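Worked example 2:
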Amino acid sequence: MIEETTISELDPRQIKQLLAADKALNSNPSYSIEIYAAVLKLAPGCLELRKKLRALQLRMAQNSTKGLAGLLGKVTAAPFMIRGKNDKNPDQTLAKAEDLIEKSVGNVLAHQMLVDAAQSLGMKQTAVFGLETIRQINPKDLKNLKSLGDAYLEIGDTEKTITVGNEIQKINPSDGDAEDLMKRASVAVAMNKGKWEESEDFRSQLKDEAEAQSLEQASKTVNDAKGLEDLIRQAYAKWEQEPENLNHYRQLSEYYQRYGDLENAIAWIQEARKQEAGRTDVSLEEKERNLTLEYYDDVIDQWEKQYHQNPNDPDAKSSWEEAISNRKLYQKSQLESLVQRYPNDFGYRYELGVLLFEEEDFEGCLAHFQLAQKNAKVRLDAILYLGRAYSRKNFHDLAIEQFNLLKEEIQIMDDRKKEAIYELGCCYESMQKGEEAMEEFKLVYSADISFRDVADKINAFYNKA
């Protein structure tokens, strides 16, 4: 392990050398590079110095080639296989990588060698920097971008993780790895953890009975906590005997959910999805999505309660609003991914359409509601939302068709029919057809006087008359 440090932590004599090199940056950059490299060999953990050295190397290479694009032409083939991962002497590999980079800063294989060695030495920030440099040299290297996204997530920089995910999607819009990366990042934002997939934590909790008995349960929904703890231990013992059996993962997740520990409930489903049989199990993916949304709802409820208890606390209000925003971000990214991967699952299209409608993206939601009508379970709701979307776009004639369809098809005056007739009246109202509008409002009024503001509309009409 090599500890990452700053220039200010170096030996005073080394700092003095670096100051002299700084002064020669413009007049004698080759001298500066020589000093930077020499000090870095003695202090390989100094990331600040490594960045200064690399910036100068890249600048000189750009001046001598046709920009960064020209750097790639310098290394067309590797005469030998560069290794960094699982190296027995990663510190020596790190030094070797710097030597190769000094000869040709465009040598992507050398930068990857540096990344692998840094990861072996626990130098996470240095590994990130190495991946960033590769991106600077070759911004369309998808494999490197995915590694960079994972590295950002590992150090907790979710904002940059999402940025990298967007970069990948611009290059390849259908890249599933990018969707997964952004999903994990958005979850980490709200959870403020991003470590669900490190299964050692919850396994160690279960192995120690004393720790299992002290599991936190802020929102426990069952009375017999001791009974659930026993069930968890039994299920865990079965899982140890048959780790390939997905039913054990599901059972553990269910018990944790009932226990009120949603983090571990999600973690076990994630572990199940890593198994060979679980990678193609759509039900596991749906279970993880629903559990995650439930977790978001709990977080939102907690912040809402805290805000109502302390309405003058700006942090409580901002945290509440942020939790709501994070839930929407997660839900939208999930639904967009599901719709793309399962275009004929019209239930997902309906859900995404509702989300877009709530965001007032009335144009974007239309196609989803049109297709969602093929799903019998959501058909009537999809027609209602389709009419609403047309209405919000002022396509009142198209909206009227949808609302009339529901008015005729729904036999009982339930909330959905009342909603359709009320919206129908609003369309006529917007079209300056007051009499037609009032006929519709009267139908709703006669069935439910308290429905929305229909009573006010009826009273205003008769008062005016």
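The CA atoms of residues 332 and 355 lie 7 Å apart. DSSP finds 24 helices and no strands in the chain.
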